Amino acid sequence: MTSIEAWFMDDSDEDHRMPHKLNPNEPVSLKELENIGVFYWKLDADIYEADPALEKIRKDRGYSYSDIITIDKDKLPNYEDKMKMFFEEHLHLDDEIRYILDGRAYFDVRDREDRWIRIAMTKGDLITLPAGIYHRFTLTETNYTQTMRLFVGEPVWKAYNRPADEFDIRQKYVSALQCA
Ligand SMILES: CSCCC(=O)/C(O)=C/O
Ligand SMILES: [Fe+2]
C-alpha cells in the first residue's frame, strides 16, 4: 500500500473540479482516513483484467460484482445530470468500492467534525468508503475517468442525499466512529 493524497478542503465557491486546498495545505494521512473507515490500495491498473492482487482483494472481501463506468461528457448518457447527482452530498446503504483504471477523480468524505476531506484518486487507486458515510464525487479539471465499480452481490446504486440521519446504517456508522 503506497500513499494517497488527501487534504482538508477550503470553502470557496470556485469550480468544484479544482483542488480546493487550504492555504497552507492541511494534508490528511491514510491513517486518519482509516480512522473514519476509508481504506485504500494501490494496484497496477494496466493489468486489471488478470491482476492477482485485485483478485485477492475481491475474494477476501466478497466483491463478486464489477462493472466499468467511463465518465466523459461524450460517452456517458445524461452526463450533466449524473455529475450533478454524484456531487450531491449523500450516503449509501452499502460500501462504495471504486478502482480508478484511467484518468482522475476526487472523492470527498466528511470527517468526525463534519469537515470535508478531499481524496485525490489517480490510475491504480482502489478505495472503499463505508456504508453510512456522507460523501460526494467529482471529476478533476481533466474531466475524465474510467472507473471499476465493485460490489458484494447484486449492486444497489441508490444514493440518499443528506440529511439521511434516520437510516440505521448512518447510526451504525456514527456509533462505530465513537468506539474507534
Ligand atoms: C466513479 S463512480 C460514480 C460515482 C458514484 O457512483 C458515487 O456514488 C459517488 O459517490
Ligand atoms: Fe456515492
Automatic annotation (TrEMBL):
One of its GO terms (cellular component) is nucleus. Pathway: Amino-acid biosynthesis; L-methionine biosynthesis via salvage pathway; L-methionine from S-methyl-5-thio-alpha-D-ribose 1-phosphate: step 5/6. It is a peripheral membrane protein. GO terms for molecular function: acireductone dioxygenase (Ni2+-requiring) activity; acireductone dioxygenase [iron(II)-requiring] activity; iron ion binding; nickel cation binding. Ni(2+) binds at residues 90, 92, 96, 135. It is an enzyme of class 1 (oxidoreductase). GO terms for biological process: L-methionine salvage from methylthioadenosine. InterPro entries: ARD, ARD_euk, RmlC-like_jellyroll, RmlC_Cupin_sf. It catalyses: 1,2-dihydroxy-5-(methylsulfanyl)pent-1-en-3-one + O2 = 4-methylsulfanyl-2-oxobutanoate + formate + 2 H(+); 1,2-dihydroxy-5-(methylsulfanyl)pent-1-en-3-one + O2 = 3-(methylsulfanyl)propanoate + CO + formate + 2 H(+). Its main location: cytoplasm. It comes from the Eukaryota. Binds either 1 Fe or Ni cation per monomer. Iron-binding promotes an acireductone dioxygenase reaction producing 2-keto-4-methylthiobutyrate, while nickel-binding promotes an acireductone dioxygenase reaction producing 3-(methylsulfanyl)propanoate. Fe(2+) binds at residues 90, 92, 96, 135. It is found in: Cytoplasm; Nucleus; Cell membrane. Its cofactor is Fe(2+); Ni(2+). Its EC number is 1.13.11.53, 1.13.11.54. Catalyzes 2 different reactions between oxygen and the acireductone 1,2-dihydroxy-3-keto-5-methylthiopentene (DHK-MTPene) depending upon the metal bound in the active site. Fe-containing acireductone dioxygenase (Fe-ARD) produces formate and 2-keto-4-methylthiobutyrate (KMTB), the alpha-ketoacid precursor of methionine in the methionine recycle pathway. Ni-containing acireductone dioxygenase (Ni-ARD) produces methylthiopropionate, carbon monoxide and formate, and does not lie on the methionine recycle pathway. Monomer. PANTHER family: ACIREDUCTONE DIOXYGENASE (PTHR23418:SF0). Belongs to the acireductone dioxygenase (ARD) family. This is Acireductone dioxygenase.
